[in-house]
Amino acid sequence: MRLFLDTTILLDYLLDARGAFHEPAVKLMTAIAAGDYEGGFATSQATDLYNSLNKACNDGVARSVLQKLFAFCDLYATSPDACVSALQSSMRDYEDAVQMETARENGCDYIVTRSAKDYAASPIPFIDAAGFLALAMPK
User: Fold this and answer.
1) What's the CA gap between 99 and 83, in Å, rounded?
2) Fewer CB within 10 Å, N or C, the chain?
3) How far apart are CA 91 and CA 133, in angstroms?
4) What is the dihedral of CA 64, 12, 99, 3, to 10 degrees?
5) Average pLDDT over residues 79-93
6) H or E element: which one contains 81?
């Protein structure tokens, strides 16, 4: 199963200060790192992640953390067609529409996000980390 990881999920994983959202994100990313699922995100998200990590820590830590993340997550290129198609999307937020189109072009089965309302018009199913874990790994 191929998952597109929204920035919210990646930051929940990377920053322990994200409260109750941190643990499900860690479990999800651990499963991805173990090869249970494929997980990735758009290359454009890398700079957003760097900026957030650099503010929370520093440049060296941000670079080191991203290097480790890149070792087990796929980086999906956003094509010009995705950018154009996103303009025609019924999704209200253009950035989210571009992410959705990138996920579609890369054959993702789910978009994992905490921003469900932002993806309400997505043709790709969306779910949060805890919901995905409950769906994929029932106890």
Assistant:
1) 9
2) C
3) 26
4) 90
5) 95
6) helix 80-88
Structure tokens at 125: 């199913």
Tokens representing 61?
A: 């830590």
Residue 6 has a pLDDT of: 96
The values of phi and psi at residue 76, to 5°, are -100, 125
In 3-state terms, the chain is what percent helix, strand and coil (to 5)?
65, 10, 25
Q: Which two tokens stand for residue 120?
A: 């309400």
**Residue position matching structure tokens 């990646």:** 10
Query: What is the Cα–Cα distance from 75 to 4, expressed in whole angstroms?
Result: 10
The predicted-structure confidence for 94-127, as pLDDT tens digits, reads as follows 999 999 999 999 999 999 999 888 899 999 999 9
Q: Which residues pair with 126 in a beta bridge?
A: 111
Cβ-contact 112, 122 below 8 angstroms: no
- Say which DSSP state 106 is in: T
Q: How far apart are CA 38 and CA 42, in angstroms?
A: 14
Does the pTM of the predicted model rise above 0.70?
yes
Q: How far is CA 54 from CA 31, 46, 60, in A?
A: 26, 12, 8
Helix (H) / strand (E) containing 2: strand 2-5
8 A C-beta contact, residue 87 and residue 94: yes
